[in-house]
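ARCHIVE CARD
CATEGORY: sequence design from structure
SOURCE FIELD: tokenized fold
FIELD CONTENT:
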């Protein structure tokens, strides 16, 4: 009884950089869109989007959110302008990079021109949207000289971006138009990294905050999968009945309604119960996996972060066991000064001519009711461009949160490959199942 609009990207790479059969693969973005309409009824409609990948950073406390991102393409405004947005389950406010001049002849798809949209409306600062719905913003909005709601996004490298809270129509596919969707129309993007920032128009905030894209759309759930083999992916917004895919295992979302200094209550928080290396459970006390009285120690599922980060005691236990189980199989990079992305410090040397890694231990994240198994070849990540003599450098794709000053466990999208990830807001739970994302696409009638 649901209506599915299915967009499909044929050669739509999902991850910019990914280790596969020990080959380093750099991906590019082409996509074809096919539209399939099935039966209709019930609102909001379910929609399927292609996801592509790109390098970008998103505004957040985590510096490691840079680089690889999941991208959704859609149109905004009347007449519609093409935009591409980073899918981020760790952010609330969706935003677009705006330019308030009149667009010249050649439209720039990385910029939204509000003056060219008749449906664009800035939000006044006395509006309840500005005063009431922004309570979970990391930086509260202010009032600008025109009495408009002024939003600021900050980045870990202390750069920031400023703009107005505004609303406009968002067009998801040809049959779904949402008017008055609130987003940040950001004028200035002060950053040390503007090359990378300029590759997409903005970000689609998908967390549980009241102004996030999912909250505003009122979708009861959304899901995505990321292929581990052919770089394609799917984003499904809305209700889905994917029982044919695989039975999902559900883990409840944890909620703490009190405000705690280190607890992000808008995040998708789950309960981590343990970590296994090749089936061997790490000896860590359960207490370090549970948020403490300050909120430190929450476990967030975050599509905006690439790798997975663990608090020091758990990271060290994983590091020790992984090192133990790879002794004699892999050669450790003996360079204490090399720490990839500031937090991944267990790295190895692999002869650059070697196209296949040896069989390596898997790492499983055990949640209440569900388990996420990261296969051996996905546990190691080849560091782009890094060489030691004739060897390339590979690092364990789990990092130490402590080295980043982050008080949380963060499950990144590198470890969500070939997983169906369902965010069920209605029932407050996350469903997981191991799937072949390329086959899932075919089952939706696309992907030939
Ligand atoms: C992230 O981007 C930086 C700058 O472009 C690059 O040096 C680094 O290798 C990238 N890291 C990954 C994991 O792609
Ligand atoms: C938006 O993108 C589509 C597909 O890439 C293209 O056909 C169309 O001309 C673009 N529209 C605008 C206004 O740039
Ligand atoms: C806005 O666009 C105009 C014309 O395309 C350009 O000259 C100007 O530099 C842009 N402004 C910003 C802040 O990017
Ligand atoms: C764009 O719109 C703003 C108000 O939203 C206005 O102040 C500005 O003058 C307009 N710019 C142009 C070039 O039309
Ligand atoms: C603002 O929020 C408070 C509680 O969060 C609520 O009591 C009040 O009615 C809201 N005001 C408006 C104008 O929505
Ligand atoms: C949605 O909006 C676009 C752009 O204004 C328009 O072309 C399309 O016909 C609209 N579709 C529906 C179903 O209203
Ligand atoms: C989902 O599919 C199963 C089997 O295909 C069916 O039994 C069930 O009623 C469906 N649920 C919904 C909500 O459509
Ligand atoms: C690995 O751990 C086992 C059991 O704790 C121990 O007996 C063995 O010596 C360790 N091996 C290495 C290479 O550290
Ligand atoms: C790297 O490989 C080349 C060719 O195989 C060889 O001549 C050179 O000595 C090697 N360098 C190191 C540092 O091993």
């Amino acid at each position: 009884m649901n209506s599915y609009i299915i967009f499909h990207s044929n050669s739509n790479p999902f991850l910019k950089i990914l280790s596969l059969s020990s080959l380093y693969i750099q991906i590019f973005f082409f996509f074809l869109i096919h539209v399939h309409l099935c039966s209709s009824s019930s609102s909001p409609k379910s929609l399927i989007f292609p996801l592509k990948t790109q390098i970008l950073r998103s505004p957040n406390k985590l510096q490691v959110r840079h680089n690889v991102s999941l991208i959704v393409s859609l149109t905004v405004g009347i007449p519609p302008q093409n935009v591409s947005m980073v899918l981020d389950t760790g952010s609330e406010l969706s935003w677009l990079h705006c330019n308030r001049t009149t667009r010249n002849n050649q439209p720039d798809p990385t910029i939204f021109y509000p003056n060219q949209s008749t449906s664009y409306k800035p939000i006044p600062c006395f509006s309840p949207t500005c005063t009431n719905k922004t309570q979970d913003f990391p930086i509260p909005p202010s009032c600008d000289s025109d009495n408009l709601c002024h939003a600021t996004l900050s980045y870990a490298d202390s750069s920031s971006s400023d703009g107005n809270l505004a609303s406009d129509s968002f067009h998801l596919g040809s049959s779904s138009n949402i008017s008055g969707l609130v987003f940040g129309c950001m004028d200035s993007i002060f950053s040390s990294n503007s090359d990378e920032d300029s590759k997409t128009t903005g970000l689609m905030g998908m967390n549980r905050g009241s102004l996030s894209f999912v909250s505003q759309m009122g979708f009861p759930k959304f899901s995505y999968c990321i292929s581990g083999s052919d770089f394609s992916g799917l984003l499904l917004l809305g209700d889905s009945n994917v029982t044919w895919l695989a039975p999902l295992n559900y883990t409840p979302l944890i909620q703490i309604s009190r405000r705690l200094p280190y607890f992000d209550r808008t995040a998708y928080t789950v309960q981590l119960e343990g970590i296994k290396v090749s089936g061997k459970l790490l000896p860590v006390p359960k207490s370090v996996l549970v948020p403490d009285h300050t909120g430190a120690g929450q476990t967030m599922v975050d599509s905006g972060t690439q790798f997975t980060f663990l608090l020091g005691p758990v990271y060290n236990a994983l590091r020790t066991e992984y090192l133990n189980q790879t002794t004699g199989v892999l050669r450790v990079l003996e360079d204490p000064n090399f720490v990839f992305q500031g937090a991944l410090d267990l790295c190895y040397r692999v002869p650059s001519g070697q196209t296949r890694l040896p069989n390596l231990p898997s790492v499983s994240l055990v949640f209440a009711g569900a388990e996420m198994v990261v296969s051996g070849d996905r546990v190691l990540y080849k560091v782009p461009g890094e060489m030691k003599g004739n060897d390339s450098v590979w690092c364990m794709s789990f990092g130490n949160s402590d080295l980043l000053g982050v008080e949380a466990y963060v499950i990144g999208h590198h470890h969500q490959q070939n997983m169906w990830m369902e965010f069920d807001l209605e029932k407050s739970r996350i469903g997981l199942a191991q799937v072949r994302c390329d086959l899932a696409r075919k089952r939706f009638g696309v992907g030939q």
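CARD ANNOTATION: The longest helix spans residues 312-326. The pocket of 2-acetamido-2-deoxy-beta-D-glucopyranose (ligand 3) is lined by residues 99, 101, 104 (CB under 6 Å).
SHELF: design records, drawer C
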